[in-house]
Design a protein that fits this description.
single chain; about 500 residues; alpha/beta; Rossmann fold; 3 domains; 4-stranded mixed beta sheet; 24 strands; about 30% helix; about 20% strand; globular
Length: about 500
């Protein structure tokens, strides 16, 4: 498979290993709404934030949407979109790697981009996700009219879509629009209700579908030139006997197959998304101006209807959505209104000046964007976090501010590459959980109630006797073991020293 090479590309491919895991520290003053909410807003560098999320959310995110800087050579107030090409690639590559780790096996990633970097981003995504997991390149009509200042002005952006696993990814059909619903009629008073019809012929030539059919009125038809009938003659006869074919008002027309509105599970989306269906730049600017005022708006927002379509196709109620280039907060706002959980990451100060006030308004029931269409009345909430100190310092020592649950999550993720199962008693037992027949334990800061805060970190005969029992193999993390190798083998124990045998990079 072709790979992309650029200046410092080796550095980009090694970048994720060098990023330390950092603590996430909540700022209750900026959190809002339901204190039990699972919605998270993080302020900080998104590379560090994504790495810090891995122990808790790896393989859990159903849909990722990002709108990274397009590298267009222009500068905006809220971020620098004027990076040299190789720097842009070096910046985006490690973030794509971490985003893939956070996706569930049924999940997908959707990335807005324009012609400046789209071809190169496509090759990067092929490398990280695998070419077989490419799904589509959506073309979004972002303008309503040509730019008079440019002879061939851009009318569209792309949205590149990749699956974590193309064999497992799950997509939904789009619900019928009001205009589509109006097309359903019932001129023959069919008891099954309103219907639309489609031609009974199809392109091609299949010998067993080239028969001469007869309508109930006795009119005979052969397939049109270059076409065959959609089904075998036996299926035609069945549909005809059940009244599922339409032959026109006089009953003498060519057959058409009825599809009833009650049987319609929605329509498939294609890759052409006109602005009349999903909004455009002017609509997005209007939404932002109404939220923040024209003098305090974000430069490059996306319309809520665009994100609504993506989340409709890629998620269901309760699924987890992630946007690591949150911008003005559109993805989080739409996810909240649609009943999805979300994680939003934004580096700049507008995480506080734009995202927080916007999401507060959503919780309070603001009526912009898609609110009225969904009958959004408010509710829910979000918790605001900032990136804290690294879990391990430059000498690979455990940060004294690290709590047992935080280190437990990192130990578990290091071993299993999955998030630690949520347990109410995580701070009361050294047994983290069992994975693939192996039990994992963490001895850290008196977890067993030792009077000496560090006394319970040493694996001794006495401590072994009071550990939660498990009949199979065991991995135990601690400061040191006083058991000899023979005893460890006899007990089925692999002892690993903290932090030296903990894969934190």
């Amino acid at each position: 498979m072709p790979t992309l090479h650029w200046l410092n590309d080796d550095e980009a491919r090694r970048a994720t290993r060098a990023v330390p895991y950092r603590l996430l520290e909540e700022d209750p003053a900026l959190s809002y709404g339901d204190p039990q909410t699972q919605n998270i807003l993080i302020q900080g560098d998104n590379l560090a934030a994504l790495k810090s999320l891995l122990p808790y959310y790896a393989g859990q995110v159903k849909c990722i949407y990002i709108d990274p800087p397009y590298n267009t050579g222009s500068a905006f107030d809220n971020y620098d979109d004027n990076l040299e090409h190789s720097i842009w690639l070096t910046t985006i590559y490690p973030r794509i790697e971490l985003l893939r780790e956070l996706l569930s096996e049924e999940g997908s990633i959707w990335i807005s981009i324009d012609d400046n970097e789209a071809p190169y981003l496509r090759v990067v995504l092929d490398e990280v996700f695998g070419r077989k997991n490419f799904v589509a390149s959506v073309v979004w009509q972002k303008r309503t009219s040509p730019d008079a200042r440019i002879h061939l002005g851009p009318a569209h952006d792309y949205i590149l879509v990749y699956a974590k696993d193309s064999q497992q990814v799950i997509f939904n059909r789009m619900p019928l629009s009001e205009d589509q619903i109006k097309q359903y009629k019932n001129p023959d008073k069919d008891p099954r209700g309103p219907w639309v019809s489609t031609d009974f012929s199809a392109q091609g030539w299949r010998p067993n579908q080239m028969y001469k059919l007869q309508t109930p009125c006795g009119v005979e038809y052969e397939p049109p030139p270059g076409r065959c009938w959609v089904n075998l003659e036996t299926e035609y006869n069945r549909l005809c006997s059940e009244g599922r074919l339409w032959f026109g008002n006089d009953g003498k027309g060519r057959p058409r197959v009825k599809t009833y509105i009650g049987e319609n599970t929605g329509v498939s989306s294609w890759t052409w998304w006109p602005n009349i269906e999903v909004g455009h730049n002017q609509e997005a600017k209007k939404e932002i101006n109404e939220l923040f005022g024209a003098n305090n708006a974000f430069e490059t927002p996306k319309p809520e209807r665009l994100i609504f379509r993506i989340l409709t196709i890629a998620t269901n109620s309760g699924d987890l959505v992630l946007d690591s280039f949150l911008g003005s907060g559109t993805t989080a706002a739409v996810a909240q209104k649609m009943g999805r959980r979300y994680i939003g990451i934004e580096m700049g100060e507008h995480a506080v000046t734009h995202c927080v006030p916007r999401l507060k308004k959503v919780v309070d029931g603001e009526q912009g964007g898609i609110s009225k269409a969904l009958n959004w009345q408010g509710g829910g909430g979000f918790r605001f976090y900032r990136l804290g100190e690294p879990v391990f310092d430059e000498n690979n020592h455990i940060n004294p501010h690290v709590t047992y649950p935080a280190l437990a999550a990192h130990c578990w993720f290091s071993e299993t590459k999955t998030p630690l199962p949520i347990k109410q008693d995580v701070e009361k037992t050294p047994l983290l959980s069992v994975h693939n027949g192996t039990a994992y334990y963490l001895l850290f800061n008196g977890i067993l109630g030792d009077q000496n805060p560090e006394g319970g970190n040493v694996l001794t005969q006495k401590l072994l006797r009071i550990l939660p029992s498990f009949a199979g193999s065991k991995v135990i993390y601690g400061e040191v073991s006083l058991l000899d190798e023979a005893r460890l083998r006899a007990e089925g124990i692999t002892f690993k020293k903290i932090p030296y045998e903990l894969s934190v990079r």
